[in-house]
Amino acid sequence: MLNYFSRYKTLPPFFKEKPNKNVGIIVVIPCYDDDFVFQTLDNLNVADKPNCEVEVIVVVNSAENTEINIINKNRDVFEKLKKRRGGACPRPYEKCTSGRPQGSPIPILIENVPKKFAGVGNARKTGMDEAVRRFAEINKNNGIIVSLDSDCLVAKNYFTEIEKYFVNNSKSDCCTINFQHNFDKNIYSEQEIYGCQLYETYLRYFRLSLAATGFPYCFHTIGSCFAIKALCYTKLGGMARLQAGEDFYFLHKAAQATKVGRIDEKIVFPAPRFSDRVPFGTGRAIQKIIENEQYKVYNFELFKILKRFFETFDNIFETKAVDLKIIPKEIINFTIEKKLLEIFNETIANTKHKEQFIKRLYSKFDAFFVIRFLNFFNNSEKFPPKELFEEIKKLLDYYKISVSDFSHENIYKIIDNLDTKI
């Protein structure tokens, strides 16, 4: 794993202290202008202990253009985190008699990050790189790096479920974690909760629609909801320093190298807060939903087109020829006929087995292709974005689910249950 640090650009080591040889899970939490992180740490502290030791790295970060009030708040958070890391266990750890609790953080402070790179992707990468370095210190290639956010709560069985997944799925080096946003009315407003329920319904609508196409890599890409083995992380070249969407990019890159499984039980509870820090994501989506009083999503008809396209792969392998008549014209118009033929003919020429052929095609027509295709029709007259519940009716028809009550709450529950099953 140490080869990773000579091959890729990373920051120098942050810690001289060698980790306990029994550390098997390291949680990485980016933190920016957020003192909710202490509740997250308290939550981790009371979670059931797995069979290994746990470390928590918190990366408090700011950019070269960050406002001074946020920089000062970050520094205050960092100092408090250092105190929690100190010798005696501060409250709420007064019962801690030896060692450090699971919620005791290893804090990192990075400031003046160039505007080009600053953001959650860079912070997540910094923490995950440091987790790799710590696992390398104790020769633990299969150490588990868990990605979480500073505004999340977790279930009591958070660590034990993650540990169990990797024990029971030895061929999988990465997994996503099922979630449900925190709808605590004592913390969040009715608007935030309503908007986030719509957004969460959309996230599940999108995954279920993608699953309906036959696309093999159908999983949620949420920064606070995945885990990966350290060696696999290094083989992928680490986390991208993107200001948003780093989770989507990273997980779909992982899918090309290993099986990305899923922990079905909901053990992560992200916050449903407004935010305009990044151009997309939970906070931004909720803000738009509240402002517009509706939520328009990808037209379900586009997923049907993708399904018809993916179904042509078998025929093309069997015939070793590309019949453009069987490929949806929307795909041809989007991809351009010449490029489409080049991809298929190159794949035919370089693969012998069907499994190889299909996998190679999905490396070309991957998740990024899917998103670009869907976005291509954002301003179209034929397949424009539609109101969420209108498209959910089509989705439920596809899955042969009859619904009479289309209230907000009922649809949320139905889509939530369906997404957990499929």
Structure write-up:
This protein has 422 residues and is an alpha/beta fold. The chain folds into two domains: 247 residues, Spore Coat Polysaccharide Biosynthesis Protein SpsA, Chain A (Alpha-Beta Complex); 76 residues, no CATH class. It is built from 17 helices and ten strands. It has an eight-stranded mixed beta sheet with strand order 3-2-1-4-7-6-8-5, with helices on both faces. It has a two-stranded antiparallel sheet with strand order 9-10. β1, α2 and β2 form a beta-alpha-beta unit. α6 packs parallel to α16. About 4% of the residues have low confidence.
Structural class: alpha/beta
The description of the largest β-sheet is: 8 strands, mixed
Provide the CATH superfamily of the largest domain. Spore Coat Polysaccharide Biosynthesis Protein SpsA, Chain A
- 3D shape: globular
What is the count of distinct domains? 2
Arithmetic mean of pLDDT = 90
Rg over CA atoms, rounded to whole Å, is 23 Å
Strand portion, in percent? Answer: 5-15%
Low-pLDDT stretches: 87-99, 276-280
Q: Give a count of the beta strands, DSSP E runs of length 2 or more.
A: 10
Element pattern in H and E: HEHEHEHEEHEHEHHEHEHHHHHHEHH
Alpha-carbon distance between the termini? 35 Å
